[in-house]
Amino acid sequence: MLTRVRPALAIFFVLLWPGAAAADTPTLTLKAPRATSYGHRIEFDGRLSPAVAGARIRLYRGKDWIATAAARADGSYRIPVAVASPGPFHVGWLGFVSPEVTIRIVPRLDASFVGTPVVGSKLTFHARLTPAQAGSLRVRVYRDGKPSFDQFFAGDVRVSIGTTRFAKLRIALDSVPREGYATVTKTLDTQLLPPTLSYGSTSPALPTLLRQLGALHYSIPSVSDSFTGDVLESVYAFEKVQGLDRTGVVDARFWTRLANPRIPKPRYPNPADHIEIDKAHQVLYIVRGGQISMIIPVSTAGIAGYYTPEGKFAIYRKVVGYDPSPLGVLLNPMYFVGGYAIHGNPNVPPYPASHGCVRVPNYVIYRIFDAEPYGETVYVYS
Question: Which pTM value belongs to this model?
Answer without folding.
Answer: 0.69
